[in-house]
């Protein structure tokens, strides 16, 4: 069962055992969401929503973060007025060993290929 929100500033996240492979793959199938995850993985720390400079509207950016959170790919928490985002690497690696690393490596190779084309 999804963790209920305690207040309007607490965001619901799926428990580890609720994270489904098809949900993770769906969340990562969008180029903008994959870009967010690549940046989080490269940095290794929590990043605020404002850190990401995506070529989409603010409402679309919010949608992308919500899809990632609801799929269990990221964890979002408020720190003061900033909404911070962290990759749920431990959960994903425990549930689907090697998946995240394989997807990130493939996305990196694709980015190089497209840049060089």
TrEMBL record:
Keywords: DNA-binding, Transcription, Transcription regulation
Keyword Membrane: no
Residue span(s) of domain HTH arsR-type: 13-107
InterPro entries: ArsR-like_HTH, HTH_ArsR_DNA-bd_dom, HTH_MetalResp_TranReg, WH-like_DNA-bd_sf, WH_DNA-bd_sf
Protein known as: ArsR/SmtB family transcription factor
Taxonomic source organism: Streptomyces cellulosae
